Amino acid sequence: MTEPILQIENLHGWYDESHVLHGVTLEARRGETVALIGRNGAGKTSTLRAAMNLLGRREGSIRVNGRETIGMPRHKVAYTGLGYVPEERGIFASLSVQENLMLLPSIGENGMSVARIYEIFPNLRERRRAAAGTLSGGEQQMLAMARVLRTGPQLLLLDEPTEGLAPVIVKAIGSLLAQLKADGMTMLLVEQNFHFARRLADRFYLIENGRITDHFDREGLEAHADRVADVVGV
Amino acid sequence: MTELFGIPMPVLSGQILLGLFNGAFYALLSLGLAVIFGLLRVINFAHGALYMMGAFIAFLLGQWLGLPFWALLVVAPVLVGVFAVAMEKLLLRHVYGLDPLYGLLLTFGVALVIEGMAQYMFGVAGKPFSQPQALSGVSMIGGMILPHYRVFVIVVALITCLGTWALIERTRLGAFLRAATENRPLVEAFGVNVPVLLTATYAFGALLAGFAGVMGAPVFQVSAFMGSNLIIIVFAVVVIGGMGSIGGAIASGFLLGLCEGLTKVVYPEAANIVVFAIMAVVLFFRPSGLFGKAA
């Protein structure tokens, strides 16, 4: 069996002095969509930030495409094949939409062309000269995804892509991610919206207090319904 | 003789020219400060010393190697930039992410060291530095006296400022800089070598200061404290323009030079304080500066 594209082992992480990750272990194989499910503050966002070397201190192992990224300078991590869509979206408000789109250096060969991006996101084309800070929340989310797709990542790290968005936009994002999945993209999806995640994900990890407490695949979902309900509080 | 508001035109135009000339230095220096502050969040108190360093390097290279002014205008700022690279890598790097006060104190300390060394080596008396021959004349245009060198400085400074503005606002490199000004860690995580960007930005700001220093050398005295005299006004200019605003730094540099020049005509006694008076008024009504965004 080939090595997973993402392999996190016994990951500990700290924000300043506070110890937020207590030995996270998870993996994503090529072409898989993996959902990380947990309450606010359980360590979902911290796990993704740790993968991008955006957390303070990290210990343990994070291997992407077989390369250890702990100890790697922050500006080199993306080149292992990671496309990061942060929770706060991280749009550069003073730059134009087009500048945001073109800003990120390419990290892989199969980046989406700008023409294709504008085909998928016609709103972004219309508003390409506007300051990105003037976009609506949904458009900002689209832009946050579009700009990493242009760089040609092999693995998308998606932090709450539907948070705070209108149902119609959530649906659009859902079908975009489903399309990416069908095209073979690997995704690690952090979601509060379990109903959104369950339609996309092949496997699920439950995270509580900075630890993975359970994991199961699509078939195991029914059997774990109580645990899931307990963790996401639905 | 023609007059405007009872002021003879030659006097008025002379002071406007002088104001723009001083404004050229304010603009070049405040532009560097604004770029550095925008990205590094460091209030660069060494800026005046770097300006002085540009003038002294030009003076020394002129003496030792007999380099012409045009060569000095390129070589001296580059050497100031090289010094700034070392300063950023060895010292400044360690105060990023700390309270801005540390950067301010560090650069202030460096400024004292540079100025102290210059004073030790050259004494307190100003050094002579002659204008390039080709620019030493004066022209008369419609009753206006135009010293060639001053016009040259105003034009070159304006081109340099506009070029810098275009570099920052219109290129991909500038987009990296603007994005990193907003969210440095994220730009870095996306694969941009931000540590190099920080070094380059500091060096570029220092280079602008050194460039201003060389241009100032023939007109102001080349002395250890030529920078510290000027930098206080430049800080006021930056505060008026709004910290971190590129266009604001350029516009307010030239505008305040002009205000100073006109004050000399109308009420000479106030010329030295007019910039600070404007700063007080601006801070009262617009604390984030004329061109700054409200924080």
TrEMBL record, chain A:
Residues 6-234 form the ABC transporter domain. It holds the Pfam family ABC_tran. This is Branched-chain amino acid transport system ATP-binding protein. Belongs to the ABC transporter superfamily. It comes from the Bacteria. CDD domains: ABC_TM1139_LivF_branched. Keywords: Amino-acid transport, ATP-binding, Nucleotide-binding, Transport. It comes from Limimaricola variabilis. One of its GO terms (molecular function) is ATP binding. InterPro entries: AAA+_ATPase (IPR003593), ABC_transporter-like_ATP-bd (IPR003439), ABC_transporter-like_CS (IPR017871), BCAA_Transport_ATP-bd_LivF (IPR052156), P-loop_NTPase (IPR027417). Signal peptide: none annotated. PANTHER family: HIGH-AFFINITY BRANCHED-CHAIN AMINO ACID TRANSPORT ATP-BINDING PROTEIN LIVF (PTHR43820:SF4).
Automatic annotation (TrEMBL), chain B:
The keyword Secreted does not apply. It is a multi-pass membrane protein. Coiled coil: none annotated. Keywords: Amino-acid transport, Cell membrane, Membrane, Transmembrane, Transmembrane helix, Transport. The keyword Transport applies. The chain crosses the membrane at residues 12-35, 42-61, 67-87, 99-122, 149-168, 189-211, 231-258, 265-285. InterPro entries: ABC_transp_permease (IPR001851), BCAA_transport_permease (IPR052157). Its main location: membrane. Pfam families: BPD_transp_2. It is found in: Cell membrane. Belongs to the binding-protein-dependent transport system permease family. LivHM subfamily. This is Branched-chain amino acid transport system permease protein. It comes from Limimaricola variabilis. The lineage of its organism: Bacteria, Pseudomonadati, Pseudomonadota, Alphaproteobacteria, Rhodobacterales.
